[in-house]
Amino acid sequence: MSSASTTTPPPATGGFTEASFETFLKGRDEPRWLIDRRREAFAQFLAIPMPTFRDEEWRRTDIRALKLDAFAPPASHDPSADAKSALAPVFEALKGHYATGIEHIDAMPTRQADPDKLGGAVFIDLGKAVKTHPELLERCLLTLAVNPGPIGSRPCTRPSGRAGSCSTCPRGSRSKGRCST
Questions:
Q1: What is the DSSP string of 62-106?
Q2: What's the rounded Cα separation, in Å, for the pair 146 and 133?
Q3: How far is CA 42 from CA 23, 25, 47, in A?
Q4: What digits encode the pLDDT tens for the residues 60-105?
């Protein structure tokens, strides 16, 4: 049996500062268009003040315990063997219910979907998708299609997000069962 500490990433240091964000970007292997969008989203994040009890939308939400300096963009590291072995039984159990899936540990993809079970659909981790299928993402990722602007609060975009999955089903594609992440 594993403990939570084997699957928890190292603590963040530095907070959401320009320096920590630039360090995050340097550790990425991403296309120029995505780096530019992350910078735009981060600039917007910095430009908008934190909500207060005076903001109607936040009047009943106590965020005093949210200390952004305790967080930072995720550091790039491979998951430990303990973390992988802790998740392996869960992944294996889910395989019986789903056609295929993607496994992420500590924001790093550790297993990819089986393309033979996707019937023409594309189901890959976001880091791989921006490189191999930019035509599917460049039009909408971190754009107004996912409104990065404020609606009475801070932006909802994740300019420093690392993990995630992406799927698209071209016309006529047919998956051989359900997919999971």
A1: --TT--GGG--SPPP-PPPHHHHHHHHHHHHHHHTTSSEE-EEET
A2: 19
A3: 13, 11, 9
A4: 888 888 888 887 766 677 888 998 899 889 888 887 777 778 888 8
In order, the DSSP letters of 26-70 are: HT----HHHHHHHHHHHHHHHHSPPP-TTSGGGTT---TT--GGG
CA 98 – CA 117 distance, rounded (Å): 10
User: How far is 59 from 42, CA to CA, in rounded Å?
Assistant: 25
Segment 11-65, tens digit of pLDDT: 445 678 888 888 888 888 899 999 999 999 899 888 888 888 888 888 888 888 8
Give pTM, 2 decimals. 0.63
CA dist 73 and 12 (Å) reads 7
3-state DSSP percent of the chain in helix, strand and coil, to 5 = 35, 10, 55
Q: How far apart are CA 73 and CA 14, in angstroms?
A: 9
SS3 state of residue 116 = helix
